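Final report, closing paragraph on structural work. Over the funding period we assembled a curated collection of sequence-structure pairs, and we close with a single example.
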Amino acid sequence: MNKPLIGAFLAALLLGAGVAPAVAAESAQARESATEAAPAPAAKAVTFAGTVALSNCSGSVVRSPDSAPTDPALVLSNGHCLETGFPGPGEVLVDRPSTRTFTLLDASGSGVGTLRASKIAYGTMTDTDLSLYELTSTYEEIESAYGIEALELETAHPVAGTAITVASGYWKRTYSCDIDGFVHQLKEGRWTWKDSVRYTPECRTIGGTSGSPVIDDATGKVVAVNNTGNESGQECTDNNPCEVDENGDVTVREGINYAQQTYNMVPCIGLGNKIDLDREGCGLPKP
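Its predicted structure, as stored:
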């Protein structure tokens, strides 16, 4: 896992500040030929607005397309970021009381307020690595107080080659790359995750980036949650996940980082933002 605080400060000093995606300037020649075909609208630059910093990880305030303004807001992070410790293989937490706090960030990465959880709505490290906290504040209360909207969850499976940004509220740093592909099974120590997102090498995420939203640059929607990377080339050990294909063949990619898709959890978010694992299309493991 992209654990926080273990070597993270040194890594941050070595790697330097994050760089937002660059937008190329239109050339004079391109402007002259614009009459032939209108250019596609430029993607909005990904900012930190809606991301949060946890005590040990990153996260984001998220909503499904059907979430109402009066619903209690949800914070997305990793299962291995839970204050209760790493869930064991096969363990699923649902509706556990929590008073955890989160620092809400604005577009520039400045902390603008503190949000508080009422419970761990869902958490697991089985098949995926995610946690969802229900907050004591609604979406409209957060927007009214801080002028910040929640990030919307994408409902479809992401596509290889998509330009993405990993936005870490913990470090106030972004990482830009593409989705390189998908992993049948990603094994790390005792845990196995399915259909994981593999980044291209440019996303060199570090400890503390765990739980960061992975944002589609073109749509601004969350397609995954950042969770791990192979640090030293070991095979299937803690902090060194390995890839296992459909035939059982193992591949180790030192220095490559990964995320867990989030489209399959959207159908699990029901009326009032309540997690309902029996809803049609819900792809999350049950207790």
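The helical segments are 8-15, 28-32, 139-146. The two ends are 22 Å apart (CA to CA). We thank the funder for supporting this effort.
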